[in-house]
Specification:
The protein is α/β, with parallel strands linked by helices. The protein has 18 helices and 16 strands. The strands form four sheets. Strands 2-1-4-5-6-7 form a six-stranded antiparallel sheet. Strands 10-14-15-3-16 form a five-stranded parallel sheet, with helices on both faces. Strands 11-12-13 form a three-stranded antiparallel sheet. The longest helix has 60 residues, at 358-417.
Length: 654
């Protein structure tokens, strides 16, 4: 998609038509305040931007409609927008018309038939932008982003505040939300994210969210499930004490059986005749169970102490044996010619009482080693026994706490209800407590519910695994790396052609920071730290030309034009120099050479990519070279402007 014409309609019906050559460099030169910079804003507006950035002045107030005629390989498209009303900050109305031989309509033929969103969608589809979506990073509050023409246009425009900026590389990069949009859509426009994977990527993100939700639900249910058994056992004992349950055993390890028994207790109707006797009998049973548990705990404590004592004794014995072995290890120092046990090793005299032989001492050393091995063999079994004792003691203490809880409830009930509540009232109070607690744990206590949650987590994880297998992330990374490498090679070559600072090193795009970086001897240097607006302009031109070389070479769905506004502004410091725009008005010889190289690069790239790429440059420069003059489409000097001054006479403003 290239720009064939830019059209302005006055309120009186007059037209200002600017025609541009397709597949060529188009230069609009002229003095200041002639409307050159407005061309970029008009194109941005006509391609669907809602915010009104067009100039506000008496001459622009005479414009009723703005329009562009776009050329596609097989058709033409008219995109027109009514001028913003005075004071309006945004406009959404638009007109879209398609035709093979589409001409320039008259003002009465213009009508609103769509809005800016539909205009961008239709134009995007015409150049091949599919229904692709880009999901934000995990934890981000941003909504999923669908790539459209508006994102592609960000790669096609550079106004005068941007082309020389060291802080922003792309059009509108400093506006809220635009950096995130660029980071999300540039990989798509580079071909790293194919359209057939965009839907799967969205499904994968949703599946991962479902996994997190299922895991959180399961975790919450498991936390609510902890400690329920002890509370249920306590209520079960309390129900038995008050005669709400028959004196038959219930398997406390089976939660369903315990809950069923408590439900029976909650629906129990008192029998005054035997209630007191049952309470006393249940209290006696609980007391005996508590005593038995305490005896078992004391027995376990004695066994633990015995094992600990054995451990201490074994440690002492091991130390003594080790010291004996250390002394006997000196046998290794006895020489081969030792005279024997009957002679003194120092003087050689005969001993009255012979020492033990070396063989005897080796035998003793071997015995000590065997004993030490036996002690060490027993130690793991002793440690295992200690662990079993501790586990058993923990289980018994849990049971004892449950029984003691039931007994404490009985004691509290007796103190509070002595002389006031009869057995029937006590049973009613207990039934109420049981019913209230069962109501709280109705869902959490259902083991089937936990199993369903676990099954949900497993299913969600399998779905994520399946989608990850379908999404070849390595291929996406490889494609993005390929695209960035291509850009780096082109940008490095252009930087060397323009003789930019650090251009003799590798130049590349930092997609995370949306800037250009150069590998220097001091390390990585960002565009922000490269001095001079002349270098900033050069790197902007090098980067955007490289982008469009890639888009054309790989047939990517991006408009085939690049608009630059005032790229030579750092070279024309004075108003007089800007007015004439001649090379001799530039002070330094090297600057004159740089400006020439800048336009030569544009001219060369457009010629190489012709007819598939178009550049429109608005600038003060008016260079004398033949190839430059051939590229000049409009020279607005000596009273020539974008909007004729006669419009102001025909459309006076109050």
């Amino acid at each position: 998609m290239q720009i064939r014409s830019i059209i302005l309609y006055s309120k009186s019906g007059e037209k200002r038509v600017l025609d541009f050559r397709l597949g060529e460099l188009n230069i609009v030169t002229g003095t200041s305040q002639t409307g050159k910079s407005a061309l970029l804003d008009i194109v941005d507006f006509c391609l669907g931007r809602d915010e009104a950035t067009l100039p506000i002045s008496p001459i622009f107030n005479t414009v009723a409609w703005y329009a562009v005629i776009l050329q596609l390989p097989d058709t033409r498209i008219l995109a027109a927008r009514p001028a913003p009303r005075p004071g309006a900050k945004s406009v959404t109305n638009a007109m879209l018309e398609v035709g093979n031989d589409l001409g320039i309509p008259e003002l009465p033929d213009l009508r609103v038939n769509t809005d800016s969103a539909q205009l961008r969608q239709q134009l995007g589809r015409r150049i091949g932008i599919g229904d692709t979506r880009s999901e934000p990073a995990p934890g981000s509050l941003l909504s999923p982003l669908s790539a459209n023409l508006g994102h592609a246009v960000l790669l096609c425009l550079q106004n005068q505040d941007e082309v020389a900026s060291k802080r922003a590389l792309f059009h509108r990069q400093n506006e809220r939300g635009i950096p995130e949009s660029l980071k999300a859509t540039i990989p798509y426009f580079l071909g790293a994210v194919p359209e057939d994977q965009a839907a799967l990527q969205q499904q994968l993100t949703q599946a991962k969210r479902a996994v997190r939700r299922a895991e959180n639900d399961l975790k919450a249910a498991q936390e609510a499930n902890q400690g329920i058994e002890a509370r249920l056992e306590s209520l079960l004992g309390e129900a038995r004490v008050h005669g709400l349950l028959p004196d038959n055993s219930v398997d406390t390890s089976d939660r369903a059986a315990v809950i069923e028994a408590l439900q029976q207790a909650a629906s129990f109707r008192p029998t005054p005749d035997n209630a007191d006797e049952q309470q006393r009998r249940q209290e006696l049973v609980l007391t005996e169970k508590a005593s038995a548990l305490r005896r078992q705990l004391r027995s376990l404590a004695e066994e633990r102490q015995l094992l600990n004592d054995l451990e201490t004794q074994a440690a002492g014995y091991t130390g003594a044996v080790a010291r004996g072995m250390s002394r006997l290890s000196a046998l290794n120092l006895v020489p081969d010619g030792f005279p024997g046990e009957h002679s003194c090793p120092l003087c050689g005299n005969e001993l009255d009482e012979p020492d033990p032989t070396v063989a005897d001492m080796h035998t003793t050393l071997a015995d000590l080693r065997g004993q030490l091995d036996s002690v060490r063999t027993v130690q793991p079994r002793r440690e295992h026994a200690l662990r079993e004792i501790e586990q058993t003691a923990t289980r018994l203490r849990e049971q004892l706490r449950g029984i003691e809880g039931a007994l404490s409830v009985i004691a509290e009930q007796r103190n509070q209800q002595a002389g006031l509540l009869g057995q029937a009232e006590a049973q009613a109070y207990t039934r109420g407590r049981i019913s209230a607690y069962l109501g709280q744990i109705d869902t959490a206590s259902d083991s089937g519910h936990l199993q369903r949650l676990e099954s949900d987590v497993a299913v969600a994880r399998r779905l994520v695994e399946g989608l990850e297998e379908q999404l070849d992330t390595e291929t996406i990374d490889d494609r993005l790396t390929h695209g960035l490498s291509y850009l780096s090679g082109k940008m490095t070559g252009h930087a060397r052609t323009l003789r930019l600072e650090h251009g003799d090193r590798l130049v590349r795009l930092d997609l995370k920071k949306l800037t250009i970086v150069a590998d220097t001897l001091e390390g990585i240097t960002e565009l922000l730290r490269i001095g001079s607006g002349k270098n900033h302009v050069g790197y902007h031109v090098a980067a955007h030309v490289a982008f469009h070389q890639y888009f054309v070479a790989n047939n990517r769905p991006v408009p085939r034009f690049l608009m630059l506004d005032q790229p030579t502004q750092p070279y024309y410091p004075s108003d007089m120099a800007k007015q004439r725009g001649r090379l001799e008005d530039i002070t330094l010889d090297e600057d004159r050479e740089t400006v020439t190289r800048l336009f030569e690069l544009m001219h060369q790239v457009v010629r190489e990519l012709s007819p598939n790429f178009q550049m429109i440059v608005s600038d003060h420069a008016d260079l004398p070279h033949d190839w430059y003059q051939d590229s000049v489409r409009y020279n607005w000097r000596n009273g020539e402007k974008l909007i004729p001054t006669t419009w102001l006479e025909d459309n006076p403003t109050p």
